[in-house]
Specification:
The protein has helices at 2-8, 15-24, 57-63, 73-77, 99-107, 112-115, 117-124, 126-145; strands at residues 27-29, 34-36, 38-39, 43-44, 47-50, 53-56, 80-83, 89-92. The protein is an alpha+beta fold. Helix 7 (117-124) crosses helix 8. The chain binds iron/sulfur cluster (SF4).
């Protein structure tokens, strides 16, 4: 499926990304799992630039109804990662570039589960999301009472 996306985004991404993906492939095994190739261990080959702002070219096309599916599920879920041998664990991954978003979420009292509600529902379904949200709210209430 990513190969289809790769063909669709060619006109949006920088030439260096095209060369990297065409020359070395868009998927790489990082020693643990398959992942999308990045340039200089930073920008994914699917990144496009709107001025100084980096955007996902797949999501960009999807939002414009020019592509039939949004960015990959693992990207949509980030900074939650699916882990475990049976892929049955959700873990939070700390990433320094997300720090401003975490601070804003704390100030606005938006739990990560709610912020990622669309992605969690997309990947695990609405029953799972509802239960996770209920438990997250319980934990928050307990924290506030303590
Ligand atoms: S959302 Fe995923 S596919 Fe899109 S640019 Fe970011 S890492 Fe790449």
């Amino acid at each position: 499926m990513l190969e289809t996306a790769w063909k669709a985004v060619r006109g949006l991404i920088p030439e260096s990304h095209r060369q990297e993906g065409d020359g070395n492939g868009i998927i790489v095994h990082d020693g643990e799992e398959l992942t999308i190739r990045c340039l200089d261990e930073r920008a994914c080959v699917f990144v496009m630039y709107d001025g100084e702002i980096a955007k996902c070219s797949i999501q960009h096309l999807y939002m414009q109804d020019r592509f039939s599916w949004p960015k990959p599920q693992s990207c949509h879920l980030f900074p939650l990662r699916i882990r475990g041998k049976r892929r049955d664990q959700l873990r939070f991954e700390r990433f320094s570039e997300c720090a401003p978003a975490l601070i804003a979420g704390e100030q606005q009292r938006i739990p990560l589960v709610r912020f990622l509600g669309e992605a969690i529902t997309r990947v695990f379904g609405s029953s799972f999301y509802d239960e996770l949200d209920r438990r997250s709210q319980e934990l928050l209430s307990r924290e506030e009472e303590a």
